[in-house]
Amino acid sequence: MASILDPQARGRVILVGAGPGDPGLLTIRAVDALKSADVVVHDGLIDPRVLDIAPPDAHRISVAKSRSKHTVPQEGINALIVAHVRTGSIVVRLKGGDPFIFGRGGEEVEAVRAAGLPVEVIPGVSAALGCAAEAMLPLTHRDHSSAVSFVAGQCKGLADQDWSGLAGKGRTLVIYMGVATAADIADKLMADGVAPDMPVAVLERGTLDGSRAIKSLLADLGPMVEREKVASPAIIVVGEVVELSDAEDKLARWAKMAEAAA
Question: What pTM did the predictor assign?
Fold first, then answer.
């Protein structure tokens, strides 16, 4: 992938995918971009070791977001990036995972282009790919899945969307940002035709310290997330390929505990 920009040019933006967490999953190109940065505008979950790749005198600006609180609204982030570029700075916009998979990278590229400024995008290992690999969960498999869909679990009008065909036999569904709405997601998928006994996995803090991979059945997704106290960041995988993973079987464990308590 050849750069569209002069590596020595000033006043430019580079959107960089930082991957799912582990600094070892950065691309060589991402490292090179960070080393050239005057300003790093970064998400909240970026490993400090990744930020340390930038020069010591680079200005680091956190624009951390959470489900209920954004320290800087998206319009403010866009304006911040443009303002720094106009001073002649090389601005690295460092985003978790891949900038173009639920990272709002498309909006930021639009804003920079609208300002008439040069921009480049360096892809990153997405959360789905990194977390699934760590859990030995193949998102596709010749015998079990020939299609993969990515959806956002935090969205308005969930009940009004048509998710039929996204999960089921021969298909894998990956849900980002779905922990808080896991029970609703399970109800929605079952209402749209997915079998209650379809395997599901929750991959929590994938590639980070304290990561967990747990699996159960779709009908048990909401209760499992609650009883296991799953917290973000986490992704949900729905499909037959879950059975091939190393994820701990929480349905079997829970059934044994319930039987022992009876």
Answer: 0.89
